[in-house]
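A protein record in our archive is deliberately plain, so that people and models can read it alike. The record that follows is passed on verbatim for readers who wish to inspect the format.
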Amino acid sequence: MPTASHERSLDSGAVKSRPVPDHVPPEMVRDFSLFTSPGMLPTANGDPHAAVACVHAGPPIFYSTSNTRDGRGTWVITRASDQRRVLQDTETFSSHRSIFASVLGESWPMIPLELDPPFHGVFRSLLNPLLSPKRVMAL
């Protein structure tokens, strides 16, 4: 019997085979990369406009083995209404383990973006007055 750490691989010619956790249904896995998906120019930074078009041409929710620095894969939520639900449901979803600090080769959280409640609220209460529309317009 497979354990929680048992993984299977996504076999695809377009993207090197990477682990897919057992709990991810095979029909939810999509071969998508921010840098190498169909219609994208082969540049170091990819083509964000082609990436958005590619994502929105597919299913509203899918699992991608690409696009994470730690190689563990990620769920991709493409519709605004679903994204809003995910971002507002802090009991189910976490802001932890984002890619911001890892881009710099660090492991610390990017405050307040990668903090969950109640810690997120502490920093937001400090930043909100400084970043109000009125204060930003005065800059």
In short: Residues 1-15 have pLDDT under 50 and may be disordered.
